[in-house]
Amino acid sequence: MDTYLKELEDKLKAAVFKFKEEVGGVRSSRPSPELVENIYVEAYGQSMQVKQLGTITIGGSREIVISLWDKEVLQPVVKAIEAAGAGLSVQSDGLTVRAFLPALSEERRQEFMKLAKRISEDARIQVRMTREETMKKLKSAEDEGILNKDGVFKAKEKAQKLVDNANAEIEKNLEAKIKELGE
After folding, report:
1. Neighbours of 91 (CB within 10 A)
2. Residue 35: predicted pLDDT
3. Rg of the Cα trace of the chain?
4. Cα dihedral sign for 26, 32, 38, 42?
5. CB-based burial of residue 24 (10 Å sphere; 0-12 exposed, 13-18 middle, 19+ buried)?
6. Comparing C-alpha atoms, which of 4, 45, 17 is closest to residue 151?
């Protein structure tokens, strides 16, 4: 029983982590390293993320500063950020790339809210699928005589609590992102 629940808990944590990472990449009025850190850049003959090529900091109320470690990747990083479609305007000098966030229009704000909601719904679907998978495993364990009815019932209750916690975490993060977008 514990192995099923541990597996469920691990998968739910992974789904919530993935959701947080994806929703963190949705642009808001505030600059965030997540907006650029996972953008892929062709550098050194391979595809690398911006966070692997330099340090990312917040420079001001609407500015992200990327301090690159190698001048050779300056132009590829600038091109990748511009091509990413995040709506950032980019300037470069020496080993530094500055990405500026223009103010969000109401239309773009609504688009980003819809995107965040869609990402949260995808995460909830993943949570439901994981729960169903666990419930099937518990049922088959009962049918094979590995677990008795009481054990299965208790495991299903614990599994539902884990699922409820994961959904609450997703909802909390979604509400925070929507509030941030509304600013």
Report:
1. 11
2. 79
3. 21
4. positive
5. middle
6. 4
Using a cut of 0.70, tell me whether the model's pTM lies above it. no
Name the stretches of the chain with pLDDT < 70. Answer: 1, 27-29, 86
State in Å, rounded, how far the first CA of the chain is from the last one: 46
**Which domains does the chain carry?**
2-24+105-182 (1.10.132.20), 34-100 (3.30.1360.40)
Both tokens of 76, joined, read 């590829």
Tokens encoding 19 = 């959701």
What single letter denotes the amino acid at residue 51? K
Do 64 and 36 touch, CB atoms closer than 8 A?
yes
Q: 50-66 pLDDT, tens per residue?
A: 888 889 888 877 888 98
CA 74, CA 30: separation in Å to the nearest integer? 24
